From TrEMBL:
GO molecular function, one term: serine-type endopeptidase activity
Keyword annotations: Hydrolase, Protease, Serine protease
Lineage, opening ranks: Bacteria, Pseudomonadati, Acidobacteriota, Terriglobia, Terriglobales
Name of the protein in its database record: S9 family peptidase
UniProt entry tagged with the keyword Protease: yes
Any one GO biological process: proteolysis
Occurrences of domain Peptidase S9 prolyl oligopeptidase catalytic (ranges): 476-689
Length: 691
């Protein structure tokens, strides 16, 4: 059944005007913000029913895709155990069950061969709930007390619980709106952060003492700057507690000896606008990753009792072409986690003695042109071994252990992909497209080699391009359902992301945000011009800020794309950024700009997807959202679709699908989520003419 044979829901108009900087913004669908209104619920349900009717003929394909993707998943599986304290910890899944099971066993120091103890069974905790997710968790040093948080709505509002792992009992008393959790070294003091009820900003840190009511919990820190969120943790050696308070461009760290939970916190370096840093500790020295002398960060050290800037000694200098993303610190060595030419690097440094002096000790080599590599779970400080994860667009997720002494990596486990997967059938490439200003934009590609028809293949391009986030080039077995049908898949590493370091982010935000959109368009044009896809069969996808990308490029070049998948899209830029009461708005002035400033207002208005919709032909579009999304409110995509329905001059499908029981990430159960992917893929394949 086609859209033209059905009548789509038409939202009523209720005219609203906002005048700012001499410009009138009109919004006929602001009433859709009334979440509890029966009329709003009826509209969303009507859109869901309409989407189901328009795609009813795709039901067999959806079922086929679901079974196909399920066949590539080892449903009963177990992660590689890691050692922490006296225990080995791991996560396992069971066939037919939606959620993971967190487990541990004592075993021996060398082997996790003891009897299993289930710490948390997500399936039991989620029983009877339409949505369930575990957030933060931490286990006390003695292995007895588990602090964890749960979300049962999808709004990413987490409730703190404490469990006695000796008895299996969950203690009486809960705390709402909790973010980070971390235990002190006394096995009795728990620190947890709490968010503001309206803005969802983590701004307070409390100390709870076991066997006392939560009403007696002590507020130890509060950040009143609305740009900042706080979080708490511990240094890898366990000797210090750390509060990190950070905005998008500024950070500040406070520390406290972990064995003195009632002591006084002290600042490493007072906050300065546009100075970001993080801190770890080893053998009486702070190791500080800082961007005080360059956007791509450097590494410095300072004595524990003298952390001020004048005492900083450089260990790794700032480099214009290399981003120092993180430092994993151990007793005998550290790992510099870097990004160069858009690809991650893991470079080893070995300490010479008890001082901070270290020498380069090799680099872990990776064999493919496009890949993802990152530190694994490493909880042992006194070690000469380092676990890391590796995967690529064609290589399943793998856990390795690198031995600093032999400089060799040992594969501990590679994700098993059943269902006949043969990685030799697939190839990946790394190419570059030239943006309008001459900048080279990296693109990562994967395709099936034996079905390639250069110039005639359907093409799928994914993009994000915000917050300095680097697109991870991981393996996803769901992708096989597209690749095996001849789709070429591309990932555009556009400006605004962090793929080429902080300057790459800077070049695609604030008053140069348009670079993000023109980079993406250039990537698509380059791909089709060079035989990687049929210009008439281009699908694009993005979510959240990537949904902003989808809306912006579709307004700019609607004829360039055949089909658009837009997930939880940030498309109502002006109305959201003018409402300081919404979660994220004030902190994100540092990403998009403050529209109360006329310069930023006019620039943001130039690309805001909702405000730039026009009478034109648009691609086929599937727009997805969730009623309980706390990051991009459901009404943004709902308003966008309602307005576009009155303007589009084509007969292509325009569908709005709302998950009425989830949040920003969609369904929480792994099987339910797979069904959502099957819906997306079926729509995409039909619009690309593959079915």
């Amino acid at each position: 059944m086609t859209e033209s044979s059905l009548n789509p829901p038409i939202a009523r108009r209720e005219h609203k005007e906002t005048v700012l900087h001499g410009i009138t913004l009109t919004d006929d669908y602001a009433w859709l913000r009334e979440k509890d209104s029966p009329e709003v619920t009826a509209f969303l349900n009507a859109e869901n029913a309409y989407a189901e009717a328009v795609t009813a003929d795709l039901a067999p394909l959806r079922d086929q895709l679901y079974e196909e993707m399920l066949s590539h998943i080892k449903q009963t599986d177990e992660s590689v155990p890691y050692r922490e304290g006296d225990w080995w910890y791991y996560v396992r899944t069971e066939e037919g069950k939606q959620y993971a099971i967190l487990c541990r066993n004592r075993g021996s120091v060398a082997s996790p061969d003891g009897p299993e103890e289930i710490i948390l069974d997500g399936n039991q905790l989620a029983e009877g709930l339409p949505f369930f997710a575990i957030g933060a968790s931490d286990i006390s040093d003695n292995g007895r007390w588990l602090a964890y948080t749960v979300d049962t709505t999808g709004f990413r509002q987490y409730t703190l619980r404490i469990k006695d792992l000796d008895t299996g009992e969950t203690l009486v008393g809960e705390v709402e709106r909790v973010g980070s959790v971390t235990w002190a070294a006394d096995n009795a003091s728990l620190f947890y952060s709490v968010e503001d009820e309206e803005q969802k900003r983590q701004f307070q840190l409390f100390r709870h003492t076991l066997q006392t009511p939560h009403s007696d919990d002590v507020l130890v820190y509060q950040d009143d700057d609305e740009r900042f969120n706080i979080g708490a943790g511990r240094t890898r050696d366990g000797k210090f507690l750390v509060i990190e308070s950070a905005s998008h461009i500024t950070s500040e760290c406070l520390v406290l000896p972990a064995d003195q939970p009632t002591g006084k916190w002290f600042v490493i370096s007072p906050r300065e606008d546009e100075h970001e840093y993080s801190v770890d500790h080893r053998n009486g020295y702070w190791y500080i990753r800082t961007n005080d002398r360059g956007r791509n960060f450097r590494l410095v050290t300072a004595p524990v009792n003298a952390p001020a800037k004048e005492n900083w000694v450089e260990q790794i200098p700032h480099r214009d072409s290399v981003m120092l993303e993180d430092v994993d610190l151990f007793a005998k060595f550290f790992v510099a986690c870097e990004r160069e030419d858009g690809l991650p690097r893991l470079r080893m440094w070995k300490f010479q003695n008890d001082t901070p002096e270290a020498n380069p000790a090799g680099e872990i080599a990776f064999p493919e042109p496009a890949y993802n590599a990152s530190p694994g779970i490493n909880r042992i400080f006194e070690t000469t071994k380092f676990r890391y994860g590796y995967q690529s667009l064609v290589t399943p997720g793998s856990v390795f252990e690198y031995d600093l002494e032999t400089r060799e990596s040992k594969l501990l486990k590679q994700q098993e992909v059943p269902g006949g997967f043969d990685r030799t059938l697939y190839a990946s490439e790394r190419i570059h497209a030239k943006a309008p200003d001459g900048v080279e934009v990296p693109i990562s590609l994967v395709y099936r080699k034996d079905t390639r028809k250069p110039g005639f293949d359907p093409l799928y391009v994914y993009g994000y391009g915000s917050y300095g986030y680097s697109l991870p080039l991981g393996f996803n077995s769901n992708r096989l359902s597209l690749l095996d049908r001849g789709v070429v898949i591309a990932y555009a590493h556009i400006r605004g992301g962090g793929d080429l370091g902080k300057p790459w982010h800077d070049a695609g935000k604030m008053l140069v945000k348009l670079n993000t959109f023109t980079d993406f368009i250039a990537a698509v044009e380059h791909l089709t011009a060079n035989g990687y896809g049929d210009p008439a069969r281009v699908a694009i996808e993005g979510g959240s800020a990537g949904g902003l990308l989808m809306g912006a490029v579709t307004n700019l070049r609607p004829n360039l794309f055949r089909v658009v998948l837009s997930h939880v899209p940030f498309v109502d830029v002006m109305n959201t950024m003018l409402d300081a009461s919404l979660p994220l708005t004030v902190p994100e002035y540092e990403e998009w700009g403050d529209p109360n400033d006329e310069t930023y207002f006019k620039y943001m208005l130039s690309y805001s997807p909702y405000d730039n919709l026009k009478a034109a032909g648009y691609p086929a579009m599937l727009v997805k959202t969730s009623l309980n999304d706390s990051q991009v409110m459901y009404w943004e995509p709902a308003k966008y679709v309602a307005k576009l329905r009155t303007l589009k001059t084509d007969s292509n499908p325009l569908l709005l699908v709302t998950n009425m029981e989830a949040g920003h990430g969609g369904a929480s159960g792994r099987y339910d989520y797979l069904k959502e992917i099957a819906f997306d893929f079926a729509f995409l394949l039909r619009e690309l003419g593959i079915v």
